[in-house]
Task: inverse folding
């Protein structure tokens, strides 16, 4: 009886577990310093409620929670009815709005100015700029609705011609026109050096640096909270079991080692999330808990070397060519090589062997060589023109020796003489 | 009454005193309108002259003054001109023909704040050739002309008819087509055509074309809150946008610009001036202040009235847009860049019987550079024309801009009237903050001094100074209440604000980086030392990285892992990298000094 109820509870829970993994609010994972959150919140509040113009940059490495910080602050801000009613938002992304013309159209569209019909914006680039500036100029602090400009990938906007958009936004934010707040989000620490002098002068120099000074204990704690089920979970018994399982998992020595390695590699929350998702995906009805082995497997997947993996799919001939290149690199200290040199090196190897197992025709070898180039395991040296014959085009190997050796160890049924050839110091 | 005859299209037109006439001007479609007061012959008796009372068309009224009207003017409306800068004697040859003027009283822009009521004018005798152009005002217009300050001028022009037909056609085409492409502005002369064309119903489903889009930001429902306490009050006053009562520390520059522009306006001549200075030294603010004062002087009739136009190189998409913007500010006309250039050329080179001085402010001049430099050439050439009456004030950041980017003929026309704004000294900055605060006591004396000294040492940028002060008030507001504190912004708050704004984040970023990233940075430095160069390929650094991992007793890193760490460092620009498609061959450089990296990594 008890077995049946348990089974009934498991199936939906099994689905739920995955959903919890996907939908879990990442904001709980970030712990922003209160000062930074307060700084941004107060700043935006003053724009929304007092009509004060501001500009601010949020700077931090990828995955540090820059966008999440802004999202949290906006959520808090919009709880205020007064702010919610008046604030207009314009979201721009440097990867989407690649020049000022597109950016201006997008701003006009998002603001629903009067030259917008449906989704189309009328007028030329110059007219749009004039129109927008005129609109902002007509506004004033006390009567017009404040506009919040969010510029994601801010550094890319600095590469637009003359930085017209940035100049104008910052100029509006520093003059008695419609109240605006400009929030830039970027991962470049040197972003201020990208701005032109006059643009820089108009920027208020407020910067919020998001740098995670997370210790390993905090990291472990984060893993635990991230995996644990919340109190409001429908099946409380399952949740209890699950959370206990997570606790024992985090206490496991090998798990701790794996997590330590991940922590050493990157403190980025997203990569951690990736690892945990891989673990969660191995949970099934038959095995409703995460075992240390799952985590080890997931970690192995995360750390797998893509290029070395690619070597496993090569033919013996191609592998031999790679080994010949490795020897050439050793002899000539990384100088570029061409097909002919590789072929000679390969022939030297064949001469020492009496058996004719690897006797290939020249065109076959050339074909294999080209295949390697297509896989981008080798690439032509920049500047060597396409005019030279293919056999004599200079190439470089895109692999590290460690990758080759690692791949050879794992290559299925690798001939021993090839292995030995690879290990030998002299080709 | 002196009478005179004049040949006009083989017809003879009789002009009487008291009659309204059209006088040829620079715009052929819109001749000047005037009323004949007296006709006389000059000494030799050969040339006939007329003393006239000028009127101005809507299109000639500066936009700033048009706003005083408080309503939308009829495109054919005319206004009494009472400026004194125009010659009121005209040659009889320049008179085109008489016109009818309808309506009651005159509204004059040149006597502000009082309605200038004249006797009701009846339609005067008009000759036969005018009849064909007679236009019967619609009911609506008659109603509006009963309004006391309204008058209609009969734009008796053949071209009107043609334009009517044209615009009707285009309108129909626009209504018929489904594409919302016909954002056609009605020209001023054909503005009354829509009333004559039957109102076509636009088929539902097609979006309405924005014909008269007015640029505006929607207004908020609740008014913005006023500052509540001393610190908020101080913050509002310290915002760069708040207009100060006066501009302290720029008295000398103000005086120089003022006297330059004033003398040109009074003399009715033209000239150029070049103003340079690093950002945030009050160049634009000073010129604006000068213009405010001059405008005031013109309003109380101390100096002749003038036009003030402002363009900014950064606020246009292309240098040639400068012409379009100038023309639009001058006359309200819209034109393409080439056409606008031609119109302006004509306007500034032809002699017109009455013309006000135009003061043109060109901000961010260096952006108007083109390969042939014809925009700059024209801007500096127009003032030298005899009849232009144009004063050009140019602003840019660099002192030697004329020598650096301008070719000789442009630089020579710009002339040598130059002025450079020095960065503010700490005393001046202090004075600026004090004057802005204007007795609002929010800062301790020492704190102010610290800010101004720091900024003066760095850049002398007043904007920076104000921003730091504003940030300091915020920090003060949120700092825990200290029983001993005065509630004012003190040294500690200012220090914190300065740190936030000026400290570089590189060192903190390195300290917060993950262990592998830190090891990679170490490896980079080790490899640089080994090579004796400031550049290495990833492959070379990676060898060092693996060695370091062994030393630290960590698991050896794979190439992907090392590459990922390298890319992350590259994304925050701690390292400078080649494009990532080069893989292990990409070259790596440091974007911070080696000492900084070692310093940051030393403690742990």
Result:
């Amino acid at each position: 009886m008890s077995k049946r109820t348990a089974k009934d509870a498991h199936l939906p829970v099994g689905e739920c577990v995955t959903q919890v993994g996907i939908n879990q609010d990442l904001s709980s994972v970030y712990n922003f310093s209160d000062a930074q959150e307060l700084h941004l919140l107060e700043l935006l509040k003053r724009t929304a409620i007092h009509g004060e113009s501001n500009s601010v940059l949020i700077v931090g490495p990828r995955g540090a929670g820059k966008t999440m910080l802004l999202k949290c602050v906006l959520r808090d801000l919009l709880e205020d009815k007064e702010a919610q009613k008046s604030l207009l938002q314009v979201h721009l992304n440097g990867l989407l709005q690649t020049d000022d013309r597109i950016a201006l159209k997008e701003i006009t569209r998002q603001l629903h100015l009067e030259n917008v019909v449906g989704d189309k914006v009328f007028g030329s680039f110059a007219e749009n700029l004039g129109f927008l500036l005129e609109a902002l100029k007509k506004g004033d602090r006390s009567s017009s609705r404040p506009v919040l400009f969010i510029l994601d990938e801010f550094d890319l906007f600095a590469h637009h011609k003359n930085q017209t958009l940035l100049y104008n936004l910052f100029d509006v934010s520093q003059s008695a026109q419609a109240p605006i707040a400009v929030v830039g989000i970027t991962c470049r620490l040197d972003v201020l050096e990208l701005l032109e002098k006059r643009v820089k002068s108009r920027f208020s120099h407020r910067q919020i640096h998001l740098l995670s000074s997370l210790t390993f204990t905090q990291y472990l704690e984060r893993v635990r909270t991230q995996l644990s089920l919340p109190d409001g979970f429908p099946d409380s018994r399952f949740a209890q079991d699950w959370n206990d399982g997570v606790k024992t998992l985090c206490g496991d020595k090998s798990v701790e080692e794996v997590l330590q390695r991940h922590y050493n590699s990157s403190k980025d929350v997203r990569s951690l999330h990736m690892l945990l998702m891989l673990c969660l995906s191995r949970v099934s009805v038959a095995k409703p808990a995460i075992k240390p082995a799952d985590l080890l497997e997931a970690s192995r997947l995360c750390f797998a070397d893509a290029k070395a993996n690619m070597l496993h799919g090569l033919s013996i001939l191609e592998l031999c060519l790679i080994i010949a290149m490795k020897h050439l690199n050793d002899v000539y200290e990384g100088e570029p090589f061409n097909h002919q040199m590789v072929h000679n090196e390969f022939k030297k190897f064949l001469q020492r062997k009496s058996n004719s197992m690897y006797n290939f025709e020249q065109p076959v070898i050339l074909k294999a060589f080209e295949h390697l180039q297509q896989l981008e395991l080798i690439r032509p040296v920049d500047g060597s023109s396409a005019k030279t014959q293919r056999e004599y085009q200079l190439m470089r190997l895109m692999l590290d020796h460690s990758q080759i050796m690692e791949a050879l160890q794992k290559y299925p049924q690798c001939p021993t003489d090839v292995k030995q050839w690879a290990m030998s110091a002299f080709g | 009454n002196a009478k005179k005859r004049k040949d006009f299209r083989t017809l003879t037109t009789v002009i009487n005193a008291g009659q309204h006439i059209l006088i040829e001007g620079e715009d052929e479609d819109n001749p000047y309108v005037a009323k004949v007061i007296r006709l006389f012959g000059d000494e030799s008796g050969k040339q006939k002259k007329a003393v006239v009372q000028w009127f101005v068309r809507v299109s000639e009224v500066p936009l700033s003054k048009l706003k005083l009207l408080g309503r939308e003017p009829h495109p054919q409306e005319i206004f009494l001109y009472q400026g004194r800068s125009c010659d009121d004697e005209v040659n009889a040859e320049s008179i085109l023909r008489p016109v009818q003027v309808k309506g009651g009283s005159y509204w004059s822009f040149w006597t502000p704040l009082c309605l200038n009521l004249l006797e009701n004018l009846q339609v005067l005798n008009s000759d036969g050739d005018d009849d064909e152009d007679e236009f019967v005002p619609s009911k609506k217009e008659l109603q509006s002309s009963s309004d006391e300050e309204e008058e209609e001028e009969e734009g008796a022009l053949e071209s009107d008819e043609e334009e009517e037909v044209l615009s009707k056609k285009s309108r129909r085409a626009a209504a018929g087509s489904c594409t919302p492409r016909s954002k056609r502005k009605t020209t001023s002369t054909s503005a009354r055509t829509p009333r004559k064309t039957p109102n076509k119903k636009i088929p539902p489903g097609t979006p309405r074309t924005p014909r008269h889009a007015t640029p505006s930001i929607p207004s908020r429902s609740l008014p913005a809150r006023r500052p509540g306490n001393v610190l908020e009050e101080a913050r509002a006053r310290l915002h760069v946008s708040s207009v100060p009562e006066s501009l302290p520390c720029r008295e000398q520059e103000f005086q120089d610009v003022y006297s330059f522009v004033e003398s040109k306006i009074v003399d009715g001549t033209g000239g150029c001036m070049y103003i340079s200075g690093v950002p945030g030294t009050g160049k634009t603010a000073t010129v604006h202040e000068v213009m405010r004062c001059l405008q005031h002087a013109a309003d109380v009739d101390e100096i002749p009235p003038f036009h003030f136009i402002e363009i900014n190189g950064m606020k246009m998409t292309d240098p040639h847009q400068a012409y379009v913007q100038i023309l639009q500010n001058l006359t309200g006309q819209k034109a393409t860049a080439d056409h606008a250039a031609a119109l302006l050329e004509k306007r500034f080179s032809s002699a017109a019987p009455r013309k006000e001085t135009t003061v043109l402010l060109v901000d961010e001049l260096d952006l108007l550079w083109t390969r042939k430099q014809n925009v700059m050439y024209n801007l500096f050439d127009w003032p030298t024309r005899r009849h232009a009456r144009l004063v050009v004030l140019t602003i840019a950041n660099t002192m030697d801009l004329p020598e650096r980017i301008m070719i000789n003929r442009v630089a020579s026309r710009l002339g040598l009237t130059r002025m450079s704004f020095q960065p503010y000294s700490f005393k001046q900055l202090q004075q600026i903050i004090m004057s802005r605060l204007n007795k609002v006591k929010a800062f301790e004396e020492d704190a102010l001094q610290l800010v101004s000294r720091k900024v003066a040492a760095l850049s002398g940028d007043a904007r920076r100074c104000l921003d730091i002060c504003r940030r300091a008030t915020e920090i003060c507001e949120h700092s825990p209440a200290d029983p001993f504190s005065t509630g004012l912004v003190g040294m500690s708050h200012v220090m914190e604000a300065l740190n936030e704004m000026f400290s570089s984040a590189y060192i903190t970023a390195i300290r917060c980086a993950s262990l592998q990233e830190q090891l990679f940075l170490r490896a980079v430095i080790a490899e640089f030392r080994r090579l004796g160069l400031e550049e290495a390929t990833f492959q070379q650094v990676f060898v060092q990285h693996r060695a370091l991992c062994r030393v630290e007793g960590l698991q050896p890193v794979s190439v992907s892992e090392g590459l990922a760490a390298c890319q992350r460092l590259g994304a925050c620009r701690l390292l400078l990298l080649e494009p990532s498609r080069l893989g292990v061959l990409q070259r790596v450089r440091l974007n911070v000094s080696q000492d900084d990296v070692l310093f940051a990594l030393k403690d742990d």
Q: What stands out?
A: Confidence is low (pLDDT under 50) at residues 1-11, 108-209 of chain B.
